[in-house]
Structures
1.
Amino acid sequence: MAISMYQASIPQLTKMLTNLSNILKKGEEFASAKSLDSKALVEGRLAPDMFPLSKQVQIACDQVKNGMARLAGVEPLKFEDNETTFTQLQDRIAKTIAFANSLKPEQINGTEAKEIKFSIKEWNFEFVGEQYLLTWIIPNFYFHITTAYDILRHNGVEVGKSDYLGG
């Protein structure tokens, strides 16, 4: 039996966003326990040419809200991309999860061959639905979730594989 587009996306994406929320909570608690300015973690990077933690969270959420909206044929949520605190990042994650959970299986299933076209800056992209989900949304989503995790881990936050995978 084949897995549906909905099964391959919404449950796992929302689970991982929940895990990311829990990881960020540990980051905030770490900063508080160590009397650190949490801004240092929110603006933390793995390398000078990489995005900071805040942008990693924003892009992970964008993969879900924009990607699933394109597949479902609905308007995505609009965010200002101006989060600078753990609280603001948590709010973005919560709104993204709520949006994803508002999508019904019938809006996502059957979109395997749907044409998806979009631009990011000067780059233009064209996919069909299944290819878009499997080769764009999911890999990009996991890259940014993992990088957010790695930034916190690199800065001393005690998170491990069980935090990443969740319960």
Note: Strands lie at 115-120, 123-128.
2.
Amino acid sequence: MRFRPCIDIHNGKVKQIVGGSLKDAGDSADENFASEYDSTFYAELYKKDGLRGGHIILLNPPSSEYYQATREQAMKALETWPGGMQIGGGITADNAGEYLEAGASHVIVTSYVFQNGEIRWENLHKLKETVGKEHLVLDLSCRKKDGGYYIVTNRWQTFTDVKLEVSTLEILAEYCDEFLVHGVDAEGKSAGVEENLVEILTEAVREHPGISVTYAGGIGSLEDLERFRNISDGCLDITIGSALDLFGGTIPYEEIKHCM
């Protein structure tokens, strides 16, 4: 288990928001934290501590009046630590190369692959050909529905028909290097992890050791982190946002930055 850090950017500022509250209309979101520091502060910190594989997420769409400010913050973070972090938010086969050239180790993709409720296989193939499997992370963030977990897109507002199961990860692993999975119903609430979801992800990694998964959502204390470690048997990586003291929470960054 490795700790993967994050830099979430909304309206040109580093923030932590409540999962599922983000709306393109009015560029609104329920905020847990808005930082006084810019993205380079966090990128420099993660670089100093050697925390590779964290993610930068642009939370504004290209249509937003804040998009350029958000993008500028993201590009500054990549410039600060070239090769150290991944980036997601509006990534397509057409613009992915630009972010890799700017210093991203991987691009993180959701909506370009999952459209109209289903997997757009032609786009997935195009991404694999354009950036290479080794530079692609698929975001399989999901919400619970009808007793299962379904991948959600469009700022986590729209359910797809794609159920997150072991077989789903097995098939998609042929196209990407890693998976990023937010338990959206728990995201930003520090109310404990989505245990059933963690069990599914752990089963997938156990059955297919080549699969790499980073989980996010719900960890609000060191006790939650230990519970996660026990459920996942250390098979999954973890990212923590609003519960971290860097973002106004109580979990000490210094204590968990090298948790294994």
Note: The helical segments are 39-48, 67-80, 96-101, 121-131, 166-172, 195-207, 222-232, 253-256.
3.
Amino acid sequence: MSDRLPKERSPEPVTVDSMASDLRALGVESGETLLVHGSLSELGWVCGGAPAVVDALQRVVVEDGTIVMPTHSPGNRNPADMQHPPVPEAWYETVREQMPAYRPDVTPTQGMGAIAECFRSYPGVLRSDHPQHSFAAWGAAAAFVTDDHALSHSLGDESPLARVYDLDGRVLFLGTTHATNTSLHLAEYRADLDLETATRESAILVDREREWVQWSDIEFTDEDFDECGEAFERDRPEAVVSGTVGVGDATLLSQPKLVDFAVEWFEQNR
């Protein structure tokens, strides 16, 4: 996701009021747990930009519910794995020695879009401790979702994704698709797949001191997420609602039903 110009001009400005109305019409409910993937540029001309989207979500879900967003920072990684742009090998040791440690309150998101970057610094929002695959949450279950995010198997059963599953949460796409649907990574961990593992590296704080650490994780991929998501929407239409927020396509779906479906789909199709 990126911060581009709006895809089209709306007949009227997209406002907090109009987005809140659109979210309720889609079926978003107060008190629920909602994992949001959003692209600001897809929603039209939003009056106030990303804060207006966050305000609308909070107005509808209210503090009795919980809003969750991925706030990943993949740039804090092994310099040998950096590709956009690649890092000269002669720089590797300097990067490992000098990369600032991940800090939930300070480290910006990367590739998550303007809405998630705005949300992470909102009052009352908590952010998990993973240096590459953090999630932020606001509301009644924010601590439950973000606490104890495991370093290894970062999108598996000791991650915020699994806590959203435990809460019977739903996934909301605001101008996005299954291509960036992080919940499908949870299904990769749970599926009986012969996945390779890899060593990951990041700078983190350990007892307030910066350390460069390594851990093991699976080699996950999102290359077939669109195909899997489309199959889910065909086979489980009762678990999916589609509509619009602003001028952008919006989809609301059951995260547990999606993950359970994807476990079987991956086992049959990978």
Note: DSSP finds nine helices and nine strands in the chain.
4.
Amino acid sequence: MKKEEISAIQNLLATPKKIAIIPHRSPDGDAIGSTLALYHFLLKLNHQPVVIAPNDFPHFLAWMPGSETVLVYENSRENCTKIINDAELVFTLDFNALHRTGEMEQVLNKLSVPMIMIDHHQKPDTYATFTYSDTSFGSTCEMIYNFISFLDKKELIDKTIATCIYTGILTDSGSFRFPSTTSTTHRVVADLIDKGVQNSEVYNLLFDNNSYSSLQLLGRALQNMKLFPEYKTAYITLSQKELDTFHYEKGDTEGIVNYGLTIKGIHFAAIFIEHKDENIIKISFRSQGNFDVNQFARENFNGGGHINAAGGKSYESMKATVAKFEALISKIII
């Protein structure tokens, strides 16, 4: 960020304010980690922050410090709308286009108060008063660490804030294995551990806390996997019936798409998940190397994200969506 922007934000934060902190719809570890880290930080500055998520977050994030304070817009539209309208400052974290908040977009679009965007996705919109956008970062949480440093308040990062930041870095880096994990990332993580983060405990809470039904769902997903070695591609489908059979809970399909990339010779993986309540097929894309799934998702499936990790959606049937995908991969070079 530019010095004048940092100075302006410091002035904004110099006196106590009502502040709304907004993650994207279907928030993941980076979205919840960054919003809660900022929430705890702003509390230390005597502000009145409130995190308002568009919809529920996965159950495996419910242990995070402060998660019980997160309001869910879909569960309390009137109350959440009032809090947003009463806010004197709004932070939007881990997304860069207001449509990523779903129904909340119409509320946020009407605001006249300053907005601060902190995000690492490509092609940010211009709605924010102050924008801290950098696609070289593997997570918004690492950017929150920098943001606090920019404000000369790094000494306020305690175990609670550090744990929230660490969670987002861990999840969005694929446990530190994605290419966006830099030496600086590791230095940041080392500092967070020095602040008191129990790194092995955080990992266990995130990844070793599965239900039996979620493991059965994983088994079905792997049974459904289809390989196209000639196109270096694998994809998985999960129908609504299969989700219901294995008692799906939000978060149960997190990370399943990555299994395709563990197969020798596969560089592009996708998962298609049917959600009949929304009349939509939700899609996740992952790649290795230079194949840009962000561009692929934007051009073909109403989505976007990063070069090696992106999401999309389809309003067609599962059969039609998969047929479209198969036709597309036969024409591209991976």
Note: The chain is about 35% helix and 20% strand.
